[in-house]
Design goal:
Blueprint lengths: L2 E10 L5 H18 L2 E7 L2 E9 H12 L4 E11 L11 E4 L7 H10 L9 H15 L10 H4 L2 H13 L1
Parallel strand pairs: 2-5
Antiparallel strand pairs: 1-3, 1-4, 2-3
């Protein structure tokens, strides 16, 4: 089947806590590493955007499990590709909060689209551009625990984002 790439977005469940996001990241990194899957998870504006890439059957299994995860709702598959080069080689699961990077055009566009949450209005090209922009921001991070430096230095931003999500 070859390598597969999936990009999806979803809306965070109301009341999602920082501890739940931390737990999600830890288990994703552990499981993805064991399955040979790479990718990146972004969180902002109460929404997730994620790219998964790796062996087709493994990516399919992980994506199906993600669809059943109660920590988010309204998942929309933006891209489903096969036989493509990996863009997140060695990254079991990169991560970034989006609000600290709102000055980057692709991030601002995503956060702007999320105000009304029209999942199809932010397509696969825009999603991939955003993921690659944030991958550049994370450059130099430990590949196993890639977290964008600005997000890692701004724990108060994470708490503010999660509090805002819980209030919506």
């Amino acid at each position: 089947m070859g390598d597969m790439v999936k990009i999806y977005r979803s809306k965070a469940r109301s009341g999602l806590s920082e501890a739940e996001v931390d737990s999600l990241l830890a288990s994703s990194r552990r499981n993805n590493h064991a399955l040979g899957i790479g990718g990146m998870l972004l969180f902002g504006g109460g929404c997730f955007l994620q790219i998964l890439e790796g062996p087709g059957p493994a990516v399919e299994r992980v994506y199906r499990r993600i669809l059943g995860d109660p920590r988010h709702i309204d998942a929309v598959l933006l891209y489903n590709g096969k036989g493509e080069p990996r863009r997140f080689v060695g990254w079991a699961m990169g991560f970034s909060l989006l609000e600290p990077f709102a000055h980057i055009r692709s991030v601002a566009e995503f956060l702007g689209h999320d105000k009304a949450y029209h999942p199809t209005s932010f397509g696969s090209d825009a999603a991939l551009r955003l993921l690659l922009d944030l991958r550049r921001e994370c450059r130099g991070s430990d590949a196993d625990h890639a977290t964008c430096a600005l997000a890692a230095r701004a724990p108060d931003a994470a708490e503010t984002v999660l509090r805002r999500t819980a209030a919506s």
